[in-house]
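Input.
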Amino acid sequence: MRTTARLVRALLFVAGGALTANAAWLAVTANLTLGTAMVAVLGLGCLACGIWFRRLTRHRVIGAVALLLVLAIVGLSSFLANYGTNDNAHYDEDAVVVLGAAVHGRELSNTLVGRLDAALAYHRRNPSALIVVSGGQGLQEEIPEAVAMRQYLLDHGVADDSILVEDRSTSTEENFANTRALLNQRLTPGYRIAFITDEFHVYRAGRIAAAAGFAATHASSRTPWYFWPANYLRESVAVLLNWLGP
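Output.
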């Protein structure tokens, strides 16, 4: 029993240290996000549990709730990863929508570059599809995400008349609503779209696309491993809110 307790306490310290270090590194090298803050809180919480482990073991209900919460997050994250990596794009859609991600000043984040590279791969297989770059300007961004995305595509050989810029959205809901307004002006009714985002985001983005009136397929890019804690933790909460929402 004591050996098990020591092991659990050691795991709490290791997990807490790793998560706190990850949050600190992201805070310095990337834009500040809710996901980074959540990782920091979780990491510090693990460290606190390790420090006061003996006291907490006297309250088994608290331990049981914490364990169930961790299992729920791990289980939901596994579902999101599996769902998001099973691409179903047909490569004959009329348009492909690239959802925005962080821009550091004017420099594209690795996450956004990954999405745009996935869009270029799609474009090579279906060059007739319009490419919609969708993303507004955040607090730590000097230009709208969509403007930076358009320039990246132009620099990689995509023709300007193949790109539509949606640079006002600040959420996934606005991504699809604003994109629908643009495409309704450009394409005939009954058009089909695919969307591109990171694998962790595909499930919720698909639900939002459907709510906006799209029967959308998807192709995914892969989240860099050092963003896993922040992205999957934040997305798990967002999915739960999506399920509970109107």
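Residues 166 and 179 are 7 Å apart (CA to CA).
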